Every structure is written in C-alpha cells, then in structure tokens.
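subagent[fold] <- orchestrator: predict structure for attached chain, return tokens only, no commentary.
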Amino acid sequence: MFTTADFLQYTQWSGIATLIFAALAILAFILKWGIRFRLVGTTGFMIVLTCGLFTLSLIPLTHTVIPGALKYTLVYDNGSTQTVIATSPKISPTQLEATLRQAATNLYSYGRLGTRADNQMTIRARTVIHPEPGLSVPVYLGQIKRTLATREDQEMTIEIYPEKFAQLPKPTA
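subagent[fold] -> orchestrator:
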C-alpha cells in the first residue's frame, strides 16, 4: 500500500512533468505547432493530476486493524448515520465485537452528516443463513454506535445479540 511519502514523491515527479508540458505548450504557441492545443489540454490534465497526488500526500490512507476482527463487507451506507456490514455466519461473539470496532473506526469520516440531536453513527452487523434450500434469511448479530463529533471515540456502545447466534448453523467437525 502506498504511503503519504510515496504520494509526495509522485507529486514532485508529476509537478516536474507539468512544468515540462507547460513549457512545451508555450513553445508550441510561439512556433505555431499543430499540436499546441493538445499540449494545453495535456498541461491542464497534469495540473489536475498533480493536485490530486498532492492531496493524497496529505491524508493518510491507513485502515485500523483490530486483533481478532474478521473480514466484513459493506452492504449499506447512507453516507450519514446508518451503515450495515455483512460477516461470515461462522463468526463468534468476540470476533463480532472486534469486527464492529474495526468497522466503526474505518467507516468514520469527517464528511458524514449527523443530526444535531443525535450525532451518532450506527453500524449493524448481519449475516445470511439458509435454513432450507432456496431460502435466505438475514440475521442481525449486533450493532455499534459511535459519535460523529470526533475520530477517537472511547464511549462506543456495542450490542451483541446472543439469541441470534443460536440461529447460526453449527460448525461440523
């Protein structure tokens, strides 16, 4: 995975290439080359690319890894306060708690909109079981609520539904 230092180096190289294309575009206008307008477009594209790489060099692209957390898939996200993740039906309650904590940290964003009265983001975890052929049933195993006010939330509330774990298929030996 690329680090912010890598993106900073890419920004420097892209900036140099942008200056070269800008110089070529100016030279093309002076000498009335036929590709002068293409060089202007290329220079504009390089400016946008350089700005994007510079932005990526400022913001770390890391995800938190919580020990014991399993892989999850984001199923639903309204971009605000409600998300749903899908987990494996072979998950244990302790693994679910770690997975919910990891999802709460990774899905947090400053851009999420919270209502003024309830500035909470709720992440629900579900799995799908197949009690009989041709029938799929979603089972919600738990949820976590965290604040949208700050990135570090020490008061996340986790609810695990033990009665739902009884519905999951038992592992075969």
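orchestrator: received. Logging for downstream: Residues 4-58 form one domain. The chain has a mean pLDDT of 88.
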